[in-house]
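Slide 14.
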Amino acid sequence: MKLHTLKVSIFAFLFLTITTFSNHQNEITTSKKQTIKVALLLDTSSSMDGLINQAKAQLWEIVNELSFAKYGIQKPNLEIALYEYGNSNLSSKEGYIRQVLQFSSDLDKISEKLFSLTTNGGSEFCGQVIQTSLNELAWGTNKNDLRLLFIAGNEPFTQGKINYKDAISNAKEKDVIVNTIFCGNYSQGISGKWQDGAISGGGDYMTINQNKKVIHIVTPYDTEILILNNRLNKTYIYYGIDGYKKHKNQSLQDSNASELNEVVEVKRAISKSSRLYNNAAWDLVDADQKKKVNYTKLNKKNLPKHLQSKSAKEIEIYVKKQALTRTKIKENIQILNKKRKLYVINKQKESGKDQLDNVLIKAIKKQANRKKYTWKK
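Slide 15: predicted structure.
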């Protein structure tokens, strides 16, 4: 009887252990952070200068809007990938298609790659660029991720050796929603099968006037935001082999935004104050908050000169101090951003509705809501 009781107890213990482990594994799986993955497939043929300029100008507005996304109580990551197609400078063997950037959360890198794009005449193969992005990009398998593909161009959707319907069918298998943005007349886009591509891909068909000048609304809060941005930049402490280079690129992307328009620079500053702008790979403040930094093992030759003679403890204290300063600056920028947004809403005109950021944000929000993503500001 005792032996039987012992066997039952062992079985019960094993069952409980396995069940507990299984539940723990399920918790790990279900608690895995969600990611909004956005692949931009941009036509860079000679007629698309306006599209590229809109993408450069509106990147930060899109990032700012996505920073407010939520999935339950979690705030999802954002990754953006970039392709160009239809440019005669690209290889004909590859279908005039080039992966500019694999999925990345490095916002400075995304900006850098956008500003590197140039246009030149070529052949636009929509089906092939969609299929290429499906083959090459790390779309992942998390069922709660939001996978969105946006293809923009102005030639018929039917061109090229790969049928767009076959490519879109493959996108569905990867749970990728295909959205189409026709740069031109709404009816012309329909006859060119851009609408059919969106319907087949479960996405939205949109049109924009790619040659329309982007409307930027100046607000009374912009100057103060830019002053805070300069103070924010001083809190960054580069480290590692690529640290200095990445730090310089941060300044370069500020300059790129400023050259487009001062308001674009303001929008970028707001993005830099959001949770989506993180540079733990090269900045000690972000790295310290994201993971424990071993200050004794830092190569001081890769640090700013004023820290190279400091002890490990002194460097750590300095980093903690900069973190407090940065937090306060970001909070102030976000407070000003709330006021700025209200001002812009009151000043906005109907003529801004066919710009790239408007159609992208509208589509992303609608499709995100289907997967139970919400926007709470």
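Speaker note: The chain is about 50% helix and 15% strand.
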